[in-house]
Amino acid sequence: MLATLAEAGGQPSDLVSITIYLTDIPDYQAHGREIGEVWRELAGASYPAMAGIGTTALWQPEALIEIVGIAVIPDDRLRTPS
Questions:
Q1: Region 2-71: CATH code
Q2: φ, ψ for residue 32, nearest 5 deg
Q3: What tens digit of pLDDT does each residue of 43-74 get?
Q4: Measured CA distances, 16 to 8, 19, 41, 55, 61 (Å)
């Protein structure tokens, strides 16, 4: 998600909302501290509004999570595909 955001000219601070779909909520909660450390390493100290939603399965059967992000990128940084 962060790579796609960067390709569009965005930065992690442009994220306004993230929804995480989880197939194993207890496992995600058990690793929350490590997940937070990785987030700060990749995206910095800013956290957008976040929601975690439990689900029994995702489109790719081997996937454990799916992340959907919404960002607002200022026009002067926005890059559109050519």
A1: 3.30.1330.40
A2: -55, -40
A3: 999 899 999 999 999 999 999 999 999 999 99
A4: 15, 11, 18, 23, 28
